[in-house]
């Protein structure tokens, strides 16, 4: 959870601290209230003392602190949130967080940590959010997280992890958000996430994964977001997502996927956003997308698709955005867009279309915009006749606005 959530908790605690004096405030820090302390600046080379004994939030930012020694927070046992970010911190003694049993939020992000000592987090049994992102960590071990039964968020993105050992997350039964993006992971064990039944968000983007073993996500029945973009994935197992029926957002863009196995998306009835752009897809077989009656956005640009067969999108009855630009499409079947009654935006620019059946848009009764690209286009056109070399009489939907002939304004996340 974000830090502001825990700061809101402090508002309810002000009543019992308001009438209590606190024991001064270090000169390097700002104590705007008795419970909130912020220490910033390059002149700080060690944790300032003495800290107010009733402080509940402590932020140490942009300092030249390189090490946390044993028990620097011994007199602030009421801390709920501790944020130590953007420092020169490279070493932490195992007893540094002793006596912080009330801590709910701990961020050590944006430092220079390479190693986490075993026992570093001992006693932090109430911790709910742990941020270790943007460091230089090369490994994590099961013993690092064994006591975190209450942990809900673990941020590990932006490190140098190449491998995550089996069992490292087994004790995190309450975890809802796990970010392993921007590391150097080359493979995953099929049982690495099997105990994470409450996980809702799993991010593995910008790694070096070439394949995902069958069963990797089977234990994540409550998963809502899965980010696998910007890896080196070449193929997907047919049943890879069969136990992820609550999945809403699936990011598979910028990989090396050349084909989609039959049934790969069959068990994803709640999916509303699917990105497959920047892959090597050459064809889309009918029925590959479905049934996904809640899908709103499908991003397929920057592939090698050459044609769209009949009924290829017919199961996507709630689809509103379909991006097919920058492919090699030279033929669209007259019934390719069957079932897309809710489609609003259709991007087809930078393809190889020379002819288009005049009835191809007839089922798109809510279509508002189509994007094409030609060598010397006008700025807009009221009906889809100009951008193609040969078009028969074209039936346009009642809500049709026009065609964008000179580019594409879509910018996915």
From TrEMBL:
Q: Where are the transmembrane segments?
A: none
Q: Which GO terms describe its cellular component?
A: apical plasma membrane; extracellular space
Gene Ontology terms for molecular function: collagen binding; fibronectin binding; laminin binding; protein sequestering activity
Could you say which residues form the signal peptide? 1-21
Q: What is this protein called?
A: Leucine rich repeat containing 15
**Domain of life the protein comes from:** Eukaryota
Pfam families recorded: LRR_4, LRR_8
Phylogenetic lineage: Eukaryota, Metazoa, Chordata, Craniata, Vertebrata
Q: Which UniProt keywords apply?
A: Leucine-rich repeat, Repeat, Signal
Q: What GO terms in the biological process aspect are recorded for it?
A: entry receptor-mediated virion attachment to host cell; host-mediated suppression of symbiont invasion; negative regulation of protein localization to plasma membrane; positive regulation of cell migration
